[in-house]
Amino acid sequence: MGKIRPSLYFFLVIVFLLNGCRYKSNTFKIGNSRSIYVHAVRNESLAPQLGLFLSKNIRENIVQRGHFVLTSDKSVSALILKVSLDDYRKTPEVYNPNDTFVASGFNLKINAKCSLINNRGKVLLDDVVLTDNVSVLRRSSLTKPSDRQAVQSLAESLGRQINHLIENYSW
């Protein structure tokens, strides 16, 4: 009986190692729609360089998450993503009690309209509006607030939202 247990344990370990954990990703529900083409983001807003930053972040998120294969050829892709930006707003948010004339902080807000089309031309998502905002503060009353870092943060957040939108589409 003492000799059976070590050999049984050894056999079970070998069986588990060969079978693995049998984990399966949920990407199988996408079916043949695993390739996606991302149009250049159309920036119809006054946000400087936001379209470029957002386009880069959408592509990075798609590659990192692995739910889709990013293609550079629209004709071989199963899905086409189109994004346009509009309604960029920069509103004062924080005032210094000693200087109420100049705002110390601003809130940046943008809307992104997303459309997802399959390779047969069927519209899966039609102009779904995603909104995001971010705040930016001035370092002192003599400096101008730096929008660049806030715009990059806005692009990263919108890129994640758009990626989640297309991943969570009910196929």
Descriptive overview:
- The chain is α/β, with parallel strands linked by helices and 171 residues long.
- It has a single domain, classed as Double Stranded RNA Binding Domain, CATH 3.30.160.
- It has 3 helices and 6 strands.
- Strands 1, 2, 3, 4, 5 and 6 form a 6-stranded mixed beta sheet that branches.
- Strand 4 (79-96) and strand 5 (99-118) form a beta hairpin.
- The radius of gyration is 24 Å and the shape is flat.
- The termini are far apart.
- The model has no long low-confidence stretch (mean pLDDT 81).
Structure at a glance:
The chain is an alpha/beta fold.
Using the coordinates above, name the CATH class.
Alpha Beta
State the secondary-structure class.
Answer: alpha/beta
Distance between the termini: 55 Å
Biggest sheet record:
6 strands, mixed
Tell me roughly what share of residues is in helical segments.
Answer: 25-40%
The coarse overall form would be flat
Give the CATH H-level superfamily: Lipoprotein like domain
